[in-house]
Write a structure and sequence with these properties.
single chain, 25% helix, 7-stranded mixed sheet
Amino acid sequence: MKINEIKTNKKRYISLLLLADEQESMIDRYLDKGTMYILDDGGIKGVCVVTDEGNNILEIKNIAIEPKYQRKGYGKKFIDFISEKYKSRYTSLQVGTGDSPLTIPFYEKCGFKKSHTIKNFFINNYDHPIFEAEIQLIDMIYLKKSISDCRKS
């Protein structure tokens, strides 16, 4: 298994990116400024985009695993990779997601804790209703975890 940074032609992975963020205009807001990685394990299994949000916070803007490879540990591998790679440059890793029974438990299992909420985010920023597990997503739930290297002084 390899995780590689993608520096050019990031849109070639749009079908994967749309799994985690189903409106392309929203992806366009962060794709160019973000650092993008692909997970290759005998073929591309997933994608992840992270951005510097200032104040020593790195944010996962998009993390998606091909549906047939979900629930096989690839998402956690991405979280572990990002945490390890950036622990000397950032103190926190955060992610914003809908209030879904599919995603919140995943992030909590990876060590994230609920941080704050942006009310009506999905209503105000998407041109159509977003549903996950038959639940309409309305508020953006932010989760955060510490990734700073304990050896730093």
